[in-house]
Amino acid sequence: MRAPGDGSWGRRALVAVPFAWLGVFFLVPFLIVAAISFAQLRIGAPPYEPLLDWSTGGLPKFNGTFDNFAQLFQDDLYVGAYLQSLKIAGLSTLMCLLVGYPMALAIARARPERRGTMLMLVILPFWTSFLIRVYAWMGILADQGLLNSFLRWLGVIDHPLVILNTDIAVYIGIVYSYLPYMILPLYAVLERQDLSLLEAAADLGARPWRAFLSVTLPLSLPGVAAGSALVFIPAVGEYVIPDLLGGGDTNMLGKALWDVFATSRDWPTASALAIALLAALVLPLALIQKLQRRLEAAGEES
Amino acid sequence: MTRRGLGPGAVALLFGYLFLYLPIGLLVAWSFNQSRLVSVWGGFSTKWYGELAHDARFLDAAWLSLRVGVTSASGALVLGTLAAVALVRFGRFRGRGLFGVLVTAPLVMPEVIMGLALLLLFVALEQTVGWPDGRGFTTIVLAHVTFATSYVTVVVRARLAQVDRSLEEAALDLGARPVTVFFAVTLPLIAPALAAGWLLAFTLSLDDVVITQFVSGPGATTLPIEVFSSVRVGVSPEINALGTIIVAVVAVGIVSAGRLMRARR
């Protein structure tokens, strides 16, 4: 198609530009984080010792330490942050699934001409500021906020419910912010489902609930997995939501990392935390990759 | 399937939409509240918009954010389009596996890690080659281009995969050079995706708190950073007004983009 030689260097240059950019600004920084996670802390700028000591002449001496990682396992603060991040992200993902699945199913089973608008309404909040949407909950959940005022006006409560600055507010914030991530992949699999399977189940005498459990749900599992990963991954490292909505005892990895980095200026420990955070995500990430490959393979077969 | 009245699905959807839109609606309504207190409705007023318009902190931050957004979205558009072309059109090339990972990974990388990583890079670069000198506009733009490129690639790649290749082949057969074909045939075909990708990159840049917080320096405060630091103290009516403006701009943008798309068809 293309003449040999023509554009061959051009093609190479075309790949090289984004390749080099991502190499310099994504891959290399990541390697630096990995390196500094083994560096020793010192007072000064930058606040870490060089990893290799060249002063002795000849071969450089390894000047690193495993203390930063050891500290993560010994300090209750970090162990707690690790466990709490996993718990909050896991439960939020489950709640997203419980709220999002019925919505995705309803959209997928709506009349085709309506689906576009219904889906659009799910995506639309995405385009408005994430920060502003999280902030909106502060006014609602505060002790003197809208929810408490409303409940008092109804006469349901005498004393304000304390929700803001607790874990409950963090759950609400995460579910609210990441719900669209759950609905979109669910919708994608549910919309493609062959409805004649449900008819067959009904003809064989299955009640709608039973048909749902044995046909719709199992067939939608790839969407469930994709949606869960898309919610779980950003939720584990979430920083803004626990900071604004969480309380003093809300201890999540993303927030711990920022505090160690900015307040204690302990960059080596912050780097070690980053590596630990990534380790928490390896499993869900591998899961998505596997699923995507399986979906692609299934797509090629059909 | 037959529908009768409001099924369980419709109820779930209704509550879902209520959950998604009620907080935004309340924010918009309360931006017109005369009272500073959330619990008191002091009557309709636009005074918070007036205060916002005279608040130099927010105006400066908004101006910086716009400059960062336009610059980084344009950079990400170029890089993301190149990456999409390489991934869709070049088949197998050396390093394609690594390239694919590098393009996708920023989409799922937690922001705190990316922020920390970029900051450590900038510090190391400054030490070794003396550039970038301090942190500010330049470092923020470099960081935003890096994460936004992946999103642009996703959008452009999807569109590029649908483009009818016979049009390009026809142009090539008629003797057009590949570069000419790209600009005269391919580019117009993927223009809607380019517009969407740019807007997405711009929106992401305009909204980013975490990564920016790592790579910005004193004197370079973007709008989200300014909002974040004032919101941490508590609810403020000025931020309600600012949020309402953002929501309004987005709504107008989305509706007109939708109209435009429909008109093109």
In a few lines, what is going on in this structure?
With 302 residues, chain A is mostly helical. Chain A is built from 13 helices and two strands.
Radius of gyration of chain B: 23 Å
Major sheet of chain B, described briefly?
none
| Shape, per Cα inertia axes of chain B | globular
What name does the CATH topology of the domain at 67-220 in chain B carry?
Answer: MetI-like fold
The radius of gyration over CA of chain A amounts to: 25 Å
Q: What is the top-level CATH class of the domain at 67-220 in chain B?
A: Mainly Alpha
Number of domains of chain A: 1
What name does CATH use for the topology of chain A? Answer: MetI-like fold
SSE-based structural type of chain B:
mainly alpha
Instruction: Please state the structural category of chain A.
Output: mainly alpha
CATH H level, superfamily name of chain A:
MetI-like
Count of alpha and pi helical runs of chain A: 13
Question: Explain this structure to me?
Answer:
The complex is a heterodimer of chains A (302) and B (265). With 302 residues, chain A is mostly helical. Chain A has helices at residues 8-36, 67-74, 76-108, 112-127, 130-141, 146-154, 167-192, 195-203, 208-219, 221-236, 240-245, 253-262, 267-301, and strands at 52-53, 61-62. Chain A has one domain: MetI-like (MetI-like fold). Helices cover 73% and strands 1% of the residues of chain A. By secondary structure, chain B is mostly helical. Chain B has a domain at 67-220: MetI-like fold, CATH 1.10.3720.10. Chain B contains eleven helices and no strands. The model of chain B has no long low-confidence stretch (mean pLDDT 89). At the A-B interface, helix 1, helix 3, helix 4, helix 5 and helix 6 of A face helix 1, helix 3, helix 4, helix 5 and helix 6 of B.
